[in-house]
Amino acid sequence: MQAEVHAIDHPLIQHKLTLMRKAETSTAKFRTLLKEISLLLAYEVTRDLPLKTEQIDTPIASTNAPMLAPDKKLVIVSILRAGQGILDGMLELMPSARVGHIGLYRDPKTLTAIEYYFKVPDEVEKRDVLIVDPMLATGNSAIAAVDRLKAINPNSLKFVCLLAAPEGIKHFHSQHPDVPIYTAAIDDRLDEHGYIVPGLGDAGDRLFGTR
Ligand code: URA
């Protein structure tokens, strides 16, 4: 199986991402930019959503028109806490999506992902799931999230991030070659602390104004 990586290099995304990367960008601006980029990513990630036709009446005529299949509501699973930034943007475009959360933190020494929270909507097994987390760094959190979700057997899974490190992509696809990655950019490498270089720093801290 050819593992899929979609780098969504739309000029608007690239411009906004550069603004996010700048160290001097404020928390408020960072949040707004992440939301805006998430809307643009959502557009690309949902390109293959199934449609049904419905008979409707326009003011002029009756017609069969496409609608999203009502029984196929998406589930967006946010990896806490930075995933919330992408979730907010995606929900603006898809307000009926169901939402799940996975709380994972990185052990600072081993960089492994440790779960502290898990809650997803019922009937995930019938649904298409988008897992969102801005940074695909070592890949450990993304792998842990997919491991957990695969155990409930969703209809499909996609992983959506803002930045990916080549090491993270490789590690993730060594475990889950069937899960496509959608990212706004693929950066150079990871540093010795597991940060993406050049990256944008700690996405959660920049989003929430913590340190
Ligand atoms: N998580 C972040 O927030 N930033 C990185 O560079 C890597 C992981």
From TrEMBL:
Q: How is the cofactor bound?
A: Binds 1 Mg(2+) ion per subunit. The magnesium is bound as Mg-PRPP.
Q: How might one describe the regulation of this protein's activity?
A: Allosterically activated by GTP.
The record's section on InterPro entries has:
PRTase-like, PRTase_dom, Upp_B, UPRT, UPRTase/APRTase
Give yes or no: UniProt keyword Zinc. no
| Positions contributing to 5-phospho-alpha-D-ribose 1-diphosphate binding | R81, R106, D133, P134, M135, L136, A137, T138, G139, N140, S141, D202
Alphabetically list the UniProt keywords. Allosteric enzyme, Glycosyltransferase, GTP-binding, Magnesium, Nucleotide-binding, Transferase
Q: Which GO terms describe its cellular component?
A: cytoplasm
Biological processes per GO annotation: UMP salvage; uracil salvage
Recorded hits in Pfam families, A to Z, give:
UPRTase
Query: In its keyword annotation, does this UniProt entry include ATP-binding?
Result: no
Q: Where is the Phosphoribosyltransferase domain?
A: 8-210
Pathway(s) this gene product operates in, as recorded in its UniProt entry: Pyrimidine metabolism; UMP biosynthesis via salvage pathway; UMP from uracil: step 1/1
Q: What's this protein's function?
A: Catalyzes the conversion of uracil and 5-phospho-alpha-D-ribose 1-diphosphate (PRPP) to UMP and diphosphate.
UniProt family annotation: Belongs to the UPRTase family.
**Designated name of the protein:** Uracil phosphoribosyltransferase
Organism name: Chroococcidiopsis cubana SAG 39.79
Taxonomic lineage from the root: Bacteria, Bacillati, Cyanobacteriota, Cyanophyceae, Chroococcidiopsidales
